[in-house]
Amino acid sequence: MFITFEGIDGAGKSTQVVKLKRHLQERGREVLTLREPGGTPVAEQIRELLLESHNDITSIAELLLFSASRAELMEKIIMPALEDGCDVILDRFFDSTTAYQGYGRGLNLDMLADINRIASHGIRPDITFYLDLTPEDALMRKFSEKSLPLAFESEELDRMENSGLEFYQRVRAGYHAILEAEPQRIVMIDALLTPPEIHRKILSNLHNFEVTSDGKN
To answer: Where does the record place the Thymidylate kinase-like domain (predicted)?
Structure first.
């Protein structure tokens, strides 16, 4: 099974990835968890360039770097794992590209769809959990955890996070547009719920998906 998690930074994706991995492993399943960008030596170098540097990167270059990282991860790690029957849980996938580079940066959505298809080798997630959070709540959550003054431009934020409030409002609107287009694949969950509540909703939806999938076979 190929499961992806989506949402703006601060939505709690990493916490839910860990919880879901533990749950599936307790059921005796082999589980691989990964993040984008990253996962291979080349992809990790791309991640550092994209997120941890403050270089001025053009929108097209940003898109192609994210896509190059994805293509590397798909071919070297994810595709072999899925072929071996492993469950793969991925923190971000091509929906992030559509939301961030498409709706956030304003790049052409048809072009993005073509690039996403190439970089993902045509593979789509079985189910995607989108943790919905406003940019304001995400920022408040991030800075309250570190007892820092609230600001949308800060050395505590990575290059993407420093893109500003309006950018993240467009990204969130993009996620909602993606959800509207693919409600059969994407499950939206309120990220303001407690982590245990979110986990229960994930397991419930995952169970429903598995039952429906079994019925189709």
So the answer is: 5-202
Between β-strands 87-91 and 2-6, what pairing exists: parallel, antiparallel or unpaired? parallel
Instruction: Measure the CA–CA gap between 158 and 48, rounded to whole angstroms.
Output: 10
Report whether 34 contacts 77 (CB < 8 A).
yes
User: Which residues does 201 contact at the CB level (< 8 Å), separation at least 6?
Assistant: 187, 189, 193
Cα dihedral across residues 157, 189, 177, 211: positive or negative: positive
Distance separating alpha carbons of residues 213 and 209, to the nearest angstrom = 6
Q: Residues at the annotated binding site for ATP?
A: 7-14
**Count of all residues that appear for the chain in the document:** 217
Tokens encoding 38: 């990253």
Spatial distance between the Cα atoms of 46 and 44, rounded to a whole number of angstroms = 5
Domain ranges, ordered by start, for the chain: 2-216
| Per-residue pLDDT in tens (0 to 9) along the chain, 217 residues | 999 999 998 899 999 999 999 999 999 999 999 999 999 999 999 999 888 767 789 999 999 999 999 999 999 999 999 999 999 999 999 999 999 999 999 999 999 999 999 999 999 999 999 999 999 998 888 766 654 444 445 555 666 777 788 999 999 999 999 999 999 999 999 999 999 999 999 999 999 988 877 656 4
- Tokens 């091509």, located at residue: 94
146-163: burial string, b at 16+ Cβ within 10 Å, e else: eeeeeebeeeebebbbeb
Token digits of residue 20: 């879901």
Fold held by 2-216: Rossmann fold (3.40.50)
Binding site, annotated residues? 7-14
